[in-house]
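User: Sequence recovery, please. Input:
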């Protein structure tokens, strides 16, 4: 094949990126996202996580394990006084997150920290400092590396499966939660979405660092076990544990009115 001229090379690179990504609208068109066509795709988990934050949230928020920025951008698009940081370790996905900040007119409101959440030195090198955030939200990889069936797509594998840890290191979920809490200021809010079976590990990792812990079960259908949990807590609080009313996503094969309103960006999670 003949060599490409500089201008042709740029167009070739742009076409290659375009062929590997799609631009999709969420929240009834309120935000748009470039995301990989193959691998992990934005969905309900990120939308629910963003909707779990209070209507009046302000200050500085971090989305840990942000991917292309779905949850963080969904939150920032409705809270224009909020400053946002998106933490992502994958260079290509972090680049898409930066593009998505621009695409949604949020470049003056947020930035991307390309860092390994597990590594204190990587966090520092990226500009992340202890107790810098008023809110930390996270939708981490759900699967244990020793038990999960690994996807053939590298992007989906990174998004869904925790990395292997050293023999003397804490469990991946424990390390993830503790890293998130290290970035949270005293009195700040912690938000997480995960599978129900992770709850004991989340509670153990949070320990006495988080109080006022509230768990909201999320059910795909009313007669099915919860498939997700939303977790909310306040750093340093001594408030008691509580369990919120369940959220039902579907009835008769379609979203419930409440779930539909959440997906349109017209409602927030009622804690």
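Assistant: Recovered sequence (271 residues):
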């Amino acid at each position: 094949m003949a060599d490409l001229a500089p201008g042709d090379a740029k167009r070739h690179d742009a076409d290659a990126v375009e062929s590997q990504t799609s631009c999709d609208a969420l929240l009834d068109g309120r935000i748009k996202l470039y995301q990989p066509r193959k691998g992990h795709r934005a969905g309900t988990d990120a939308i629910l996580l963003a909707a779990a934050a209070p209507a009046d949230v302000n200050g500085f928020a971090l989305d840990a394990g942000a991917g292309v920025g779905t949850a963080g951008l969904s939150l920032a698009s409705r809270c224009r006084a909020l400053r946002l940081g998106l933490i992502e370790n994958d260079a290509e996905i972090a680049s898409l997150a930066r593009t998505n900040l621009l695409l949604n007119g949020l470049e003056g409101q947020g930035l991307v920290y390309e860092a390994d959440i597990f590594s204190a030195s990587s966090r520092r090198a990226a500009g992340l400092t202890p107790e810098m955030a008023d809110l930390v939200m996270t939708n981490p990889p759900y699967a244990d590396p020793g038990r999960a069936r690994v996807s053939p797509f590298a992007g989906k594998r990174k998004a869904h499966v925790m990395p292997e840890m050293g023999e003397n290191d804490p469990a991946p979920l424990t390390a993830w939660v503790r890293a998130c809490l290290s970035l949270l200021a005293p009195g700040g809010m912690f938000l997480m979405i995960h599978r129900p079976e992770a709850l004991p590990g989340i509670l153990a990792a949070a320990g006495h660092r988080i109080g006022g812990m509230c768990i909201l079960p999320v059910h795909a259908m009313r007669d099915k076990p919860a498939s997700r949990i939303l977790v909310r807590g306040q750093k340093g609080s001594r408030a008691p544990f509580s369990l919120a009313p369940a959220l039902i996503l579907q009835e008769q094969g379609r979203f419930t009115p409440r779930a539909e309103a959440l997906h349109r960006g017209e409602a927030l999670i009622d804690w």
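The CA atoms of residues 46 and 121 lie 27 Å apart.
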